[in-house]
Design a protein that fits this description.
single chain, about 325 residues, alpha+beta, eight-stranded mixed beta sheet, 5 helices, 15 strands, globular
Amino acid sequence: MSTTRRGSKFAALALGLALVAAACGSDDDTSTDATTAGTEAPAETEAPAETEAPAETDAPAETDAPAETTGDTEAPEGTDGGEAAGGMTVTYTLSDAAVWNDGTPFSAADFECTWNAVMNTPGSLSTVGYDQIDSVSEGASAQEVVVHYMTPFAAWRTLFGALLKADAHEDCNDVTVDFSTGAYAYGAGPYTMTDWSAEQVVYEKNPNYAGANTSGPDKVVLVPAEDGPTLLKAGTVDFIYPQAYTGIDQELADPNVAFDAKPGGQFEALYFQQDVNCVPSDTRSCAFADADFRKAFSLSVDLQGVYDQIYAPFANGVPLLECGPIAPGP
């Protein structure tokens, strides 16, 4: 990584290049590493020069969980078995390193609080998947969490990616007021948010983090900026996490800037207006409310061609995803 007198400078893109989120097939893998998270930083932010990271250090993972939780699925056993017909059970085994920043371990209560908050908090953005759950309970030990689904839910790995700390909320059925300031008061990853405002977000090292990603500066300050590449090349900031766009690789072609792209939580996609109650107007036909039309349109798009023309030049080998926004990785 190249450095200047202002320290190291780095640009990273976390890409999940899915152009159509389609339903995936069955998953034969019965265990996975499910990362739990606390707070995520804004997608387009830059760290100022005061928080320079060592040249060999990647940007912090914000408040991702310190270690893995593993999830095992049990197939339905039919009406004469222990599992109701069509149901599904997922058992999470929590890592010893999965603790909050106050040192308390993750628990089934945290999973249940998250489920209740998603389902019942007014204005919840999406309840998909969570609305298939009918119980969350402690398993054979305090390190086991058992989640039961009324019907099989193929994308169960996408749930519980950001846990709520149950004892930090007076009422898990409505956490609106708890987050009215925009900041979490707790976290579980190598960094914990300590200050939030429209001008900046401050993360400081979590002293109780027991995971592997322990390197990095003691404090990281993220600030919004309209022209991150220019600020980066000028040495005003040390790190940027920009939205991907055509030409960014050329814009960051500077001997003092390191650039990389990795699979991540962000993805580009084709979004369809699927509201069955859609009312046609001068700006929309509502044709995509019809499932057959959506399927036909999706099949007519040359996704690989779109990827090759727009994304491939800067994607650094990140693959095209045609089976939903689930990025490859451990």
